[in-house]
Amino acid sequence: MDKTIRETQQYATQCEKQFKESMNKTGYKTLFTFYNDLSVAEYTSDENGIKETVQRITKEWLQNIKAITEFVISLNFKMWELYHQGNIRLSQLYARMYHLVFAKVEVTYNTNRRNYRTSIPPSTKRWYRKICYITCLTV
After folding, report:
1. CB contact at 8 A, 82 and 94
2. Which of 55, 56, 74, 84 meets the CB 3.0–4.6 Å disulfide criterion with 34?
């Protein structure tokens, strides 16, 4: 794709602004730029570029519960944003990526909805609750 740097930056900045506004409504203040990273990948490349970005971020940030929480939330918001824009193909891609990363989070932190109340350390439980609350999952 022949996208200029300026167009890419404008698109990513607009997406990031909307994401931050949505997050502020939930009471969450963003700490990372994952939504921006996903927007750049989405604007400048094909589905493989998005998959590579998701894999890179997951690999680099999986051990940081705050970062990976925000990343999972970003994937969920991307999925719904594209769905509402009518881009079902990319929405479905983000849905698959969301479920894959969320599953890795559950394995990494030994969390899932079945053992949530009993075996998760309090600090991890707080961030897991944020994922579930903000992405409208039932715990």
Report:
1. yes
2. 74
Which residues fall within 8 angstroms of residue 103, CB to CB, at 6 or more apart? none
* pTM: predicted TM-score of the whole model, two decimal places: 0.77
Kindly tell me the burial class for residue 38, based on how many C-beta atoms sit within 10 Å of its own C-beta (0-12, 13-18, 19 or more).
buried
CA distances from 46 to 42, 53, 77, 112 (A): 7, 11, 19, 32
**Angle CA(111)–CA(60)–CA(46) in degrees, nearest 5?**
105
Question: Residue 80 belongs to what domain range?
Answer: 5-134
56-75: pLDDT as tens digits: 999 999 988 888 888 998 99
In a domain, 139, yes or no: no
Query: Considering only CA atoms, which of 55, 28, 63 is closest in space to residue 135?
Result: 28
